[in-house]
Structure formats: C-alpha cells, structure tokens
Amino acid sequence: MRDDKTKTKQCKVCGRELSLDNFRKIYNKAYVNTCIECQGRILSEKKQQKRLANGEVVEVAMIERKFKKISFDQVLHKNVSGISHIARDEKFVRILDCKHSWGSNYGRVIVKDDDGVYRLLKPSRSRTTGELSYTLCKNIYIKSKNEFGHKKEKVLARDLVIKLFIINYDMKNNTECWRMNGDVEDNYYKNLYPVTQLQYQEIKNRSEKNGFVTEDEIIEIVNQEEYKPEEWKARYYNRTYNGVGYMGGRVDYKSDAWSRWTNMMQRCYNKKVLKKKPEYRGCRVCEEWQNFQNFKIWYDDHCLRGRKVDLDKDLLGRYGKLYSPETCSFITHFLNTVFERRNITIKKDKNGMYSAKMSIVNKIHDIGTFATEAEAMDAFIEYKKNYIAKLAESYKGKIQDCVYDAMMSWDIAA
User: Fold this and answer.
1) What is the residue range of 186's domain?
2) What is the pTM assigned to this prediction?
3) Does residue 366 sit within a domain?
C-alpha cells in the first residue's frame, strides 16, 4: 500500500503523472494504463452514448428561476423576536451554519444574544462597491480539537439572501449577482439573480443598450453555452445518474463526497434500491444537490474529517423526505439510530398490562409496565424526550449548534 502512494504512473488518457493508488490492478497484479477518474468518465460517456443509440432521451439540466420552499420550523416569527417587519412578505429564516442568526428575504439579519435578546444586526457598506455585508459567528468543526467552535465570518447580504431563498444551480461558478433594478443596496430576493461573470457582462450590455433587461432574457442568457464558464462541457449537465443527477464538472470518483452523493441519489431514485428499502419511497434530492458540484461544496464545509458519520435528513428535516442543505447534517451513526421511529416496543402481557421498551443499537431500555396502551405510549414519549435532551447535553460542542437545538426541541410525538 505504501508503494501505491509513493510510486507513480502516467495515465494514457489525461496524461497526468499520478500515484499508483489512482489506478486499478488487473487480477491484482499489473496496473491498467488509465486512471480511475478517466475510467469513470469514459464509462459514463459510453453509457450515455448507448442510451442515445437506443433512442432514450437524456435530459439536460436547464437553469430556471425558482425560489426555495421555506420550512415553518426554520422561520423566526415577529411575536418571538419582537422586531417589526419592513414588509408583509418579509421572512427571517434560520442561518443553520451561524450562531443564533436569521436572515430575511430583504437582506436583513437578526441575531439572538447570549442573554436571549433578539436584535437587528447592523450591516457594513463597502466603500468601493456599496455592497452591504454582515459579520456573523459561524459554527465550524475544529478537527484538531474534535469539537465545534465559532469563527467570525464576513458575508455579503446578497449572498446570504441567495443562499436562503433562491435555488442556485451552479454555486461554484455563480460568483456575480445581477440586480433587476440596479440598486446595489436592494437585496430583496425577487430582484437578485446569481450568475457567472460572462453572464453578468452580457446582461449588463443588453441592459445598457436597451435600457432594461427582462427576466426571460436573463434565463435565456444563463442557459446559452457561449456564456458558460471556460471549463463547461455539455456532458457534465446531462442527467445521467438515475435520470436526475448530473456531475456539473470534473469528478473524483474515489472521493467520499462522490460516494455519499451517489448513495443519496440511489436511495431516492434507483428502482432496485427502492425495492429492497421501501422506507425510502417518496424521498427526493433538492434541485441544488442534483448537481454534484453543489453537494460537494456543502460536503466540504460540513464533513467531520476523521469521524465516522451518517448523512441524516430526519433530525433537521423532522422526518421529512427531502435531502437538502436545509434539512441535512452529518451525525454519528449512534445518534442517527436514536431518531428512528421503529425503536419502540409496546406489548400486552398475560395479565393485561402493557410494557414499554426502547431499543437503541441493540441496547434495550425498559421503561416500565402500564395499565393501558395509551399510558405506555405517553411514558415512552416522556422517556425518549428526556433521553434525547440528556444526550444532546453530553454531545454539546461535538455537534453543530443547529443539531443540538433540534435535539433539544425534538417533538417525539410528531
């Protein structure tokens, strides 16, 4: 294994000089001449060509103008914060990666202090661009300490609004933001369009030439190949993975991020997997994460390096069916099993009494015996609620703040 990482070999396809662990062995002896990454790409292209030859239609991912559906659980209501809204449609949504912070669809931010008081955060303005930004307390994983901490991070108001409210199909390349009314201080979500540099320049040219640019024109521009990034290739955007997912760019087929993404896509859309695991029927992947590159950005920012963790959608998503950056978190397998619905057993004995038990990773918790089934269920709910609260306290600092908060407010009966 050591030689596999120190010795190198040149791939005949891409021409890169790579360590031997990037090549497969034939019959566990000689190494093939094509690296694993190129083999995966070639196989994907062959599958696509075969499907086209058989008359199958391969859908190409197109960019649309869509907004995110906001979960009621993530909204900070006016009667809680005590802060008036500037418009009837203003919503403050939890910024999951930041300490007790909520961002609105108008670009405002509310934070809750350690003493429990809510206050509007004052933005700073760039002297050069006029853009508004906020300094937030980001919750980050510190690998050297094996725990979570906080780090101050400056974020543009427009980027915050896009992240919370707008479906962004290409997070990697959409580094610019077009404002429909041209006002750099306007961060209302319906006026913001995440675009690439080339797309921004073309939209700007048309706006200056005609005096305005329509939404239909913007969508037309962002879907035209001539305004795509230099490394853009059409095959990256073919929905070749279970008819839904697409690569969005170059892929490291050996990476954990790719493995997690493919497993997630299979759970939701692979017929064979759904036949074996019917509990995943109805599950889906959000539009942003159907692009692997978008998922990888989230993965790189949230993966707990060196720890064995599961990609969970039930804790933040409240037993929902959606995989998304708003509903997913990395938690230990043990924590994942705690929130399974099937870990309760209520049985009636020969004396007509009902016993309640809870099982967590093969460990049985004997809750007690009760006169009625309803009493047994109530006792189970109370027991599990207290169990989760104690567990959350023991994990505090070793899990994200949003995971801790979700555990403390978990509704067992839901």
Assistant:
1) 72-213
2) 0.84
3) yes
